Amino acid sequence: MTEQQTPIALNVDDITVTYNNGHTAIHNTSFKLNGGTICALVGVNGSGKSTLFKSIMGMVKPNTGSVTLNHLPVTQALKQNIIAYVPQTEEVDWDFPVLVSDVVMMGRYGRMSFLRIPSKEDKKQVDIALERVNMSELRHRQIGELSGGQKKRVFLARALAQQGKVLLLDEPFTGVDVQTENAIIELLKSLRKEGHLILVSTHNLGSVPEFCDQVVLFNRTVLATGPTKTTFTPQNLMVTFGGALRYLSLSGEKLHEDEDTRMVSVLTDDERAAVFYGEGKDDSPHNNLLHEQFRKK
Ligand SMILES: Nc1ncnc2c1ncn2[C@@H]1O[C@H](COP(=O)(O)OP(=O)(O)OP(=O)(O)O)[C@@H](O)[C@H]1O
Description:
It comes from Orbus sasakiae. By secondary structure, the chain is an alpha/beta fold.
């Protein structure tokens, strides 16, 4: 079977990760996703989202359980360039003297010989990737000279140049303006149409129903997973955010097709998605996180 014909599938099967210091960051975590999906990974700070990404990428080895991509173990999937990862901005050394186009070319390394001499095809894919994230004009800039949003787009371009059908994005919207966020969302939607499987962690709850068709609600293990319409409910979000979430309004399509609208209210298109929180005196990290989101509006 050729790469194009292979149905895309990610299977995380009962993984547990304990770091060397004895901390079990995630446990008994299982979910399955197929191509043509954008899935949101949602959870409080420290709930283990990055650890989950790193486990899928084989950067952290689970103590138990397994991750397979297209029924292949991660190590083989990586060799076949099936999967690309956009890490959190803080995990990258921005002082490293390298040009934007060089960073994007790194996405092609897995397809080059050990001499790493770019072919015509490599250069073409870098051009296409830069164009798709609207960064062609800045291709000769040093990476350290870019703004936060531009850096995100360069790393997205690197993942696109890799031409992996599975994309993992760790908080791609943190520190980016609304225009850039919308541009990234539109790009992800077109990748979904092309059959990509996209798993994206985000703290921006309001935009999840706008572009994610699946969700994984997470706190060290999967709390709920399934279609956004039926899973991204106020009740499930209450559980995910430790009960700090008092009231939630979501824009986008109707979340419930039946009569039971529960706490979900549907806003008109021009109303921005909004997440409201109670005025309680709860100073827990959960509550502070939610208030922080509210302030950003
Ligand atoms: N290398 C490590 N060694 C030991 N503990 C770690 C390591 N990396 C992360 N942890 C711990 O594992 C837990 C999960 O961290 P992780 O970064 O996966 O969470 P997260 O959900 O991505 O958080 P955030 O939303 O803040 O980015 C945290 O308690 C963190 O302190």
